[in-house]
Design a protein that fits this description.
about 220 residues; UDP N-Acetylglucosamine Acyltransferase, domain 1; 8-stranded mixed sheet; 6-stranded mixed sheet; about 20% helix; about 30% strand; elongated; disordered C terminus; PglD_N; Acetyltransferase; transferase; transferase activity; Trans_hexapeptide_repeat
Amino acid sequence: MKIIYAIYGASGYGREVLPLLRQQFNLKRENIFFIDDSFGENAVIVNSTPVLSYQEFLSLEADSKMAVVAIANSSVRQRLTEKLIDDGVQLVSVEAQNVIQYDEVDIGPSSILSAFVTLTSNISIGKSFQANIYSYVGHDCVIGDYVTFAPAVKCNGNVIIEDHAYIGTGAIIKQGSPTKPLRIGAGAVVGMGAVVTKDVPPGITVVGNPARPFSKEALRNERK
């Protein structure tokens, strides 16, 4: 039975996911591909791995096709995920061998957990979660669908992060409480290095320490 695997996205993050996928499923090089339509129809090799267009991947002969979407933009990730499902491609989750995961962690399908990620206890995570290297999720957190953690995010306990939120590199999210969890709204963006000490409304971008809503006016005031 021939099974082939693909990483959708041959950019930097996709190349970081490649060795994790190869190791997890003990793949030979002839059974793994990148999908990236931006390369056109020309044959390209990236990190010893062929880059195919989506249609080229679908046309390959195989008993089963598996894929993971390694793209940080959550809206694009959702669109591509749904396209793969519609075309009968099975989604896989990718997890580095040194991920730490404690008790009662429920995580949805098609996730990517990079090296040195820690998930402690009593955590609920939705589908297509991406946690980049050295990220941390504390106890009693609830994370929605298509949430993205850049490297070294520290999400302390009793935090709710809604769908499509993006948490930037090195951000720290203060611990909430069982009766009043700290909440980051749907589609919110937490900037690189921000320290979140209170709720972030949906769709808002926050930056700084303590984190506050980003605006051009605020940026001008900081530069004065």
